[in-house]
């Protein structure tokens, strides 16, 4: 039976990979993203995909997007909160309050609002699912990325508390914590870290992989596969869990 899936920030990267596995599973998928170009390209590849351009930092746009999702889907069985920005790579005493607020607003506040809007619809589903995309920064901390790490730690408490509140409604809530994901984004992050430390990109890359068991960055398809599994019948008893997928990363230093 086809399920109704809403994915935030799903126009590219991890979000698109997640949307693709649900589409290939014959689920009905609605994706929002700030990039109209990414959504247009995505919809060209999957004609049945529902898309909506939305700046998730704007709470009024979120409400409009959500209403559109309900109109298109007719309900929600699975919510994937994939929203997130990294913010600047600076020391804590150099981080501006505006930059702090920008990261917290997008990574935490928008996730709260979408989830709050979705809960009444998830309660009507036979087995509702919420998946929150946290980060290794929500497990180990992240020097020079204070706002980002704080927001990702916040999602852990958000996940655990929601799982306790919503379990009686047969809604399960879990968080996925990816490590560094292979692709252009990790290269930009590593370059920024190299700039701060006044060292080379190669040295920073070697250091990033030094303290993990598997010596490669995470394939985004593996994150998508994990989402599909915990949203499946095989994952019906999994809730309130923090699920790292990071090559067994031990520390970020």
TrEMBL record:
Protein family: Belongs to the short-chain dehydrogenases/reductases (SDR) family.
The name this protein goes by in its record: 3-oxoacyl-[acyl-carrier-protein] reductase
Gene3D superfamilies registered for this protein in UniProt: NAD(P)-binding Rossmann-like Domain
Database matches in InterPro entries: NAD(P)-bd_dom_sf, Sc_DH/Rdtase_CS, SDR, SDR_fam
SUPFAM superfamilies: NAD(P)-binding Rossmann-fold domains
Top-level taxon in the UniProt lineage: Bacteria
NCBIfam families: PRK12826.1-2
PROSITE patterns listed in its UniProt record: ADH_SHORT (PS00061)
The organism of origin for this protein: Acinetobacter vivianii
CDD domains cross-referenced by the UniProt entry: SDR_c (cd05233)
A GO BP entry: monocarboxylic acid metabolic process
